[in-house]
Design brief:
This protein is 28% helix and 24% strand. The protein is an alpha+beta fold. The protein has a domain at 21-81 and 106-127: SH3 type barrels (Roll), CATH 2.30.30. Strands 4-3-2-1-5 form a five-stranded antiparallel beta sheet, with no helix packed on it. The protein is extended, with a radius of gyration of 20 Å. It comes from Daphnia magna.
Length: 127
């Protein structure tokens, strides 16, 4: 029993860290609520808030009604984000040709969603 409880704690810590999602500034997220998921509000992460132990535990978010803070556990990132520069760089000393850098094409539905979300937030900013 004495070895079982510490092993159980280690097991829980190992599995719980894998379930956390990474949220960055400027990410578009759904804010968890007691309503059905289809009724959750969208928000943009303005900044991340660190706790005393250095872990990111909350975020300042901007919704249609203003800014507020929410715990990271209540924020669910959408699967759309800004395109990232390719990580692969050839070992050559000359700068690579723009044609030689291969990037994965984005899905049309992701492009449409990104444009729709951008339009919504631009309209909210002008109101």
């Amino acid at each position: 029993l004495r070895s079982y409880l510490p092993a159980l704690r280690e097991q829980h810590q190992a599995t719980s860290k894998k379930q956390q999602t990474v949220i960055k500034e400027k990410d578009i997220v759904l804010v968890h609520d007691d309503k059905p998921r289809k009724d959750w509000k969208m928000a943009v992460v303005e900044s991340l808030i660190r706790s005393r132990d250095g872990e990111i535990r909350a975020a300042e978010i901007r919704t249609a009604k203003g800014k507020t803070n929410r715990p990271i556990a209540k924020l669910h990132p959408l699967q759309i984000s800004e395109p990232v520069d390719p990580v692969f760089r050839p070992a050559a000393e000359d700068p690579p040709d723009p044609v030689s850098i291969i990037s994965r094409p984005s899905r049309k539905s992701a492009d449409r969603a990104r444009a729709a979300v951008k339009k919504i937030f631009e309209e909210e900013a002008h109101v």
